[in-house]
Specification:
Blueprint lengths: L7 H14 L17 H52 L3 E5 L16 E5 L15 E6 L7 E6 L7 E3 L11 E6 L9 E5 L6 E4 L15
């Protein structure tokens, strides 16, 4: 019978190897798991996103249109205030009227085609621009939107606004420019009002200017 000799170091290695087997973790306990999204969870998420979109998108569009109309009204207000300031500073008549040429008044009640402010050489509020010594001091181009801007005079059929050297406006050159989106609504409506006192204002639907003579009504 053959005798098997085992070296001490080899015996220790075998003993340690057998000992380690009792302390080894099962392989499956070392694995990490990533849980996915179920079909129901995905459908619920998409439904919530769709509902938020239905609510948010119309509100966003409405706010955008309202801001655009308000901006157009404020542009006209700013030019009217500038014209009044120029009239007082120069001691001369300054006319603000709708224009499609940037030099002469169109004679129309439609203001979304643009407007001008000019100092007429004739020193008359009935001037229509284009005369040799007329001086244009402000030009506003046509709206880039489809918004409407229609002028309603207080009296008569004059389509121009006017400021004298004291900053007042003749009653024949006062009225409302109604600016609205298309299709219009009372929510979007803005009115730029000018009364004889010469202080232009922007009004919302249902409001009346400080003079009590001009009201912003829809339609």
């Amino acid at each position: 019978m053959d005798t098997i000799l085992i070296r001490p170091c080899t015996a220790i290695s075998i003993w340690l190897s057998g000992r380690d087997k009792h302390f080894q973790r099962p392989m499956n306990t070392l694995r990490t798991y990533q849980r996915g999204v179920t079909l129901i969870e995905l459908m619920v998420t998409l439904l919530v996103v769709a509902i938020l979109g239905l609510v948010a998108i119309p509100s966003y569009k409405s706010a955008t249109v309202a801001n655009q109309v308000a901006s157009e009204a404020n542009n006209l207000l700013g030019d009217m205030e500038f014209a009044r300031s120029e009239a007082i500073k120069r001691g001369q008549i300054v006319v603000v009227c709708p224009s499609t040429t940037s030099t002469t008044c169109s004679g129309s009640t439609t203001w979304n085609t643009g407007w001008i402010a000019f100092v007429p050489a004739s020193a008359s509020c009935t001037a229509t621009g284009g005369a040799a010594n007329d001086q244009v001091v402000r030009v506003q181009k046509a709206f880039t939107s489809t918004d409407s801007a229609n002028y309603t005079p207080t009296t008569g059929g004059n389509t121009s606004l006017c400021f004298n050297r004291l900053g007042f406006s003749p009653s024949a050159n006062t009225g409302l420019v109604k600016i609205n989106a298309i299709p219009g609504s009372a929510y979007f409506l803005r009115c730029v009002a000018l009364a004889s006192v010469g202080h232009p204002q922007v009004l919302k639907a249902g409001q009346t200017d400080t003079s009590g003579s001009l009201s912003c009504t829809y339609p």
